[in-house]
Amino acid sequence: MPEFIEQFSYLGLFIILFAEEAGIFLPLPGDIFIATVAALPHSNYFLIVTTVVFATLAGSTILFTLAQKFGRKLLTKYGKYIKITPNKIKKVEKWFEKYKSFTIVIGRLVPGLRIVTPFVAGLFNVSYKMFWFYTAIAAFIWANIYFIIGRFFGNILEKFLG
User: Fold this and answer.
1) Which domain holds residue 43?
2) Number of domains composing the chain
3) CA–CA separation, 121 vs 103, rounded Å?
């Protein structure tokens, strides 16, 4: 395993996930880091899951808050450049309003949507309480999936990461 992962396992995991959840592009997805820390011989299930949940809540709250404050203005001004029209926004908003709790949980678990979900939730003014509740559920599920993967496939990860 890379030495920095072993040396900074929980703190490193928190920093990496926080950055990713806040919208900072990283060369590898956070999933790999969760599985890698879980594969360490002395890793602790409770500490990993707790770290993932808190890092997810902290980082994604940044995107959520930015979307609440600036999302509409940004999409109104620049949406046309990425083919997001006011009509498309209204359609998504209707759908999101109907299925918001489901959308937050499932969106957080689908690769590629995990980072977009807090932005959409903030854009459509989901309450902080609801956002945190469903994000915490999704982060708990996410942490468990990659904890299990790390435990069962840790030896393969170790060969891959050197």
Assistant:
1) 3-161
2) 1
3) 9
